[in-house]
Amino acid sequence: MIEVDHLTKRYGPKLAVDDVSFVVRPGSVTGFLGPNGAGKSTTMRMIMGLDRPTAGRAVVNGRPYQTFRDPLRQVGALLEAKAVHSGRSAYNHLLSLAATHGIPKARVHEVIDMTGLDSVARKRVGGFSLGMGQRLGIAAALLGDPRTLILDEPVNGLDPDGVLWVRQLARRMAADGRTVFLSSHLMSEMAQTADRVVVLGRGRVLADAPIAEFVAGAGGAGGATGGGARVVVRTPSPEQLFAAIGSDAAVTAREDGSFLVVGPDAPTVGAIAAGAGIVLHELTPQGASLEEAYMALTRDDVEYRSEGTR
After folding, report:
1. Which residues contact 180 (CB under 8 A, 6 or more apart)?
2. Backbone dihedral region of 24: left (phi > 0), alpha (psi from -120 to 50 degrees) or beta?
3. Cα–Cα distance for residue pair 223/13, rounded to 1 Å
4. What's the burial of 106, exposed, middle or buried (CB within 10 Å: 0-12/13-18/19+)?
5. What is the mean pLDDT of residues 253-270?
6. Does pTM top 0.90 for this prediction?
7. Taking the chain, what is the end-to-end CA distance rounded to the nearest angstrom?
8. Is 302 helix (H, G, I), strand (E, B) or coil?
């Protein structure tokens, strides 16, 4: 279990983390979300004892990380995949880590096999691709067979097969009763991996809830797309249908040729279409997505905003 209690971090005049509290429990995957500059990496570094809090505390299994005599067996972490001597081979890097904890060589070979590094294990890390560097970082995190796993952007640079592997790894470790805490900017992937989310914005906790509850809260009034129901419609006569519905609906065209209608519910849209003699090929009620819920929640907490999202 990871417990973060009123954690605060200042860098001079900048308040990077502002009185943050949450608990990451074993047996489930907790996603850590937030815009760039929200304080996610700083929070993870404080949990790992790499940054000293200005106030508050963070403990793992009831103790500060730096007090563990065998930290690799307690917590496996990937915070910076490039923090490896570039002249070493992947095998020698893992072997040197194992030697500090009395971990047998057999375990080194085991994590190399688990992470798909067999073909490059004897090559220098300096020549690794971003994806291979990520795999090596995850291998190091798994080396001590820890009860707690902390991964900061673990799918960065991975191909689809690698992304699927990380998802399955996280789910498997959680099912085994371990504590899994990971961050990612890929909302579609987080929706398939995490059981609950903690969302930061400008150093503050904006949400701490199961994913289903978090997304459901964005689907009603004031949610990701404003008030009203959400319905996917497919019709050969979109202009006539939307003219019949009128200004009560917000309509967005989708890439597959369908339309997302926000406002009237599915029975209302169906009745309007029937009354106007308009054929519908699809009429599907739809809830908000994790991405939409996240974007709505963090809309005012983005430090660097691109033109298209204003």
Report:
1. 28, 29, 30, 148, 149, 151, 170, 173, 174
2. beta
3. 34
4. exposed
5. 90
6. no
7. 38
8. coil
